[in-house]
Amino acid sequence: MLIPPPLKIGDTIALVATARKVTKEEMQPAIRQLGEWGYQVREGSNLYGKDNQFAGSDNQRLADLQQALDDPGIKAILFARGGYGTVRIIDRVNLAGVAQHPKWLVGFSDVTVLHSHFHRYAQMCTLHAPMAINIAKSSNESLDSLLAVLRGNRHEIQFSADHRNRPGQARGILAGGNLSMLYSLAGTPSDIDTRDKILFIEDLDEHLYHVDRMMMQLKRSGKLRNLAGLLVGDVNEMRDNTKKWGFANDNPYGHNAAEIIQAHVAEYAYPVAFSFPAGHRDDNRPLVLGAMADINVGDQCTLSYTENG
């Protein structure tokens, strides 16, 4: 996989919205932070567009993304926020420009569509990391790590062991993202290939039975069978069946999201690490998706990148 070149002081980062709408006020913390790091910021022409819940029409959002991809002066693209909408434009994105001028695509959640699509068709690493709307509340550790990746500095992520972990060591290309988005991409041109990969998954605000449904889809389609390893990020703030549809329901699912995931990979032998510091949380460490990585799951856990990755 091609790794985009590191950014230099004075380089330009495009701010683009491909999903839910944003306001100028919401973008200011990110613009200030990028400026403090020494980068120029170019706002997409339709960044503050509005089309019901979207940041402008499909054509407007596509135009901003395509312009940023094609412009050799843009060295990275920071996505404004997630929500929903990127999948509506992905099939019309022209990858010719980014093949000539590779650049970091930075975001998570709904941006998982771009991660998966660009890995498959552009063979380019992308960055699962905080988006512009998250910058104000992001931890110092996540921001420092993000800057390190953008500057081309290697970094290692150490994290605490979890009682649900399955110890071991693994090497493989790092892939994945938001579980709901991976589930929605199944059978499409942007579907993910997990064979011999270290798969990362995270999610937020889903019903527990739907977490089970999504894991069943990954399992039945073979996506869990031949992994090198599994990293599970933040899977909290899930919803149960209780008080569903406005009336009391004493029929809870019975297991939390981590337990559901643990059960679906119990029959396999590869290492599994829970509580990885990434996802819908303030401490959202960047992941270089598409890069060759090593994980060590033990009393202390680490994620690092190989010299040839």
Q: How would the blueprint of this fold be written?
A:
Elements: E1 12-16, H1 24-36, E2 40-43, H2 58-70, E3 74-79, H3 96-100, E4 104-107, H4 112-121, E5 126-128, H5 140-150, E6 157-160, E7 168-178, H6 179-184, E8 197-202, H7 208-220, E9 229-232, H8 257-264, E10 272-273, E11 287-289, E12 292-297, E13 300-305
Parallel strand pairs: 1-2, 1-3, 3-4, 4-5, 7-8, 8-9, 9-10
Antiparallel strand pairs: 5-11, 6-13, 7-12, 12-13
Helix pairs in contact: 7-8
Give the CA-CA distance, first to last residue.
8 Å
Secondary-structure element series? EHEHEHEHEHEEHEHEHEEEE
Q: Which CATH-level-2 architecture of the largest domain?
A: 3-Layer(bba) Sandwich
Radius of gyration: 19 Å
Strand content: 15-25%
The CATH topology label of the largest domain is Glucose Oxidase, domain 1
Structural class: alpha/beta
Q: What is the CATH homology-level superfamily of the largest domain?
A: LD-carboxypeptidase A C-terminal domain-like
Q: How are strands sequenced across the largest beta sheet?
A: 6-13-12-7-8-9-10
Largest sheet: 7 strands, mixed
| Unreliable stretches | none
Number of helices: 8
Q: Under the CATH scheme, which class of the largest domain? A: Alpha Beta
How many strands? 13
Mean pLDDT: 95
In percent, how helical is the residue content? 25-40%
Number of domains: 2
